[in-house]
Structures are given as C-alpha cells and as structure tokens.
Amino acid sequence: MHRELRSHIISLLNAETRLDGRKLTEYRKPINVEHGVVKTAEGSARVKIGETDVIVGVKLEVGEPYPDTPNEGTIIVGAELLPLSNPDFELGPPGIEAIELARVVDRGIRESKAIDFKKLCIEKGEKIWMVIIDICPINDAGNLFDVSSLAALAALKDTKFPAYEDGKVDYKTKTSRKLELEKTPIAVTVIKIGDRFIVDPDIEEEKVIDSRLTVSSMEDGTLCALQKGGDYPLTMEDIDKMLDIGIEKAKELRKHL
C-alpha cells in the first residue's frame, strides 16, 4: 500500500506538484493563530495550518532551581497525542512520537535562548518560576512539529504571571507582567522524499518520507536548533538545501505571530 502511495507521490513531485495540488515548498492554507483560548492557563494559543490543529497551554509554577543553575528558571515541555486527533495514537504513557515532538519544541526555545532563564529566578538557590508548556493536538493532519512549535511560541507571547505573594501563587489573579520573549525561533520541517524536498507534509506524505530535518532559525536567519528524523541518511548537499528552505520558509511563518 505504502509502496504504491510512495510511487504516486514521487511521480507528482517530479512534476513539481503534490497530492493536494500545492507547490513543493508551499504551506497549506489557511494559517490561523489564535491567542488566549484556555482561560485557566497563564498563556495559551491555538494554531491551525490546513486541517492540522494544535492547542498549547502554558502554566507557571514555583519550584526549586537545579543545583548547577541556582539563579535560573527553566522550561518543561510535554505533548499528549490523543486518539481523538489521530487513530494511530494510543492512550497511555507518552510514546516515542510524543517524546520527540516535545523535544523538538523544547530545543528550539531553549537553544535560541528565547526566554532569559535568569529573569525567572525568584530567590537564588531557593525559588524559581518553571514554565510548563503543554502541547495538545486536536487534529493531526500532518506536520505536528511546525504547528506545535508555532503554537508554543504564540502561547508564550500570551503568557502573564499570576500574583505571587508571601511564597504563595494566586492563580486566580493574573498580573500585567508578561513573560518576556527575547527571540522568536521559528521551526520549519523540511522533508526529503526520493530526491525532492517539501515542507508542511500532509498525513499521506508523512507515511512515505525518507528523511526530515526540523530547522529552527531566528529573525536574522541564524540557526538555533536542528533535529533529524527518518530512516535514511542525508548528504551535506541535502542538508545545505534543507537549511536554505527552512530559513526561507521561517520568514513566512513568522508573519503569523
């Protein structure tokens, strides 16, 4: 089944088109970003690219710093892939797909230093803010990496600190203090099928990929994180092409923030 699908997709790609008629490096439409969709969270966003739909919520909790970074807060990213969004997902502990999705989103934010962890310190060596980012796909129609990464950034931009006094957090009272984002790293996943490169794969294209490279870059095009996936290796020439595509397409996604 997949062999026939792969053959069909490759023949289309060789003709510079795709199953749904898009160009090879064209994102699905529409691209929608909505803020403040979860009232119980400190920040939230819902992002749709085509039919892929992801909600991200941000909670701020007070915890203890790591011994080697006594004056820095941290982020914790988790993803829950429910059968509701894709029948291939199963209930239970996070599987490898959920772990990798969380890792890709975490790496883009952490490596770019999008958040200044020192500004999350409440009391050196004693108390810090922990930024907990929860990813929840509503519908997986392909390309969860890019949609979730964009939703995480949008949710962080929406985040405000709750009231904190005498060592206690009052979650019912939001302050006007926003979580500062120093940078906005945009993730673009470039897919290799045969000898062609595409972005924003749909669910059918994802079944036949050879390799993928998630490229996170900053406003000026500086790379901040890479994540390789797929069963086949990439040549240096492949990587150079994928980086160029990833950096260029990030400019397009950034406009939606």
Write a structural description.
There is one protein chain. The chain is of the alpha+beta class and 257 residues long. It has one domain (2-254): 2-Layer Sandwich (Ribosomal Protein S5, domain 2). 26% of the residues lie in helices and 35% in strands. Strand 7 and strand 8 form a beta hairpin. The radius of gyration is 19 Å and the shape is elongated. The mean pLDDT is 95.
Beta-sheet strand percentage? 35-45%
Structural class: alpha+beta
- What is the mean pLDDT? 95
Q: What is the molecular shape?
A: elongated
What is the CATH fold-level name?
Ribosomal Protein S5, domain 2
Between the first and last Cα atoms, what is the distance in angstroms?
39 Å
Q: Based on the structure given, which CATH architecture is correct?
A: 2-Layer Sandwich
Largest sheet: 6 strands, mixed
CATH superfamily: GHMP Kinase, N-terminal domain
Number of helices: 5
Q: Give the number of DSSP strands.
A: 12
Name of the CATH first level: Alpha Beta
Unreliably modeled segments:
none
What fraction, in percent, of the residue positions are helical?
Answer: 25-40%
| Gyration radius from CA atoms, angstroms | 19 Å
- What is the domain total for the residues? 1
**SSE run:** HEEEEHEEHEEEEHEEH
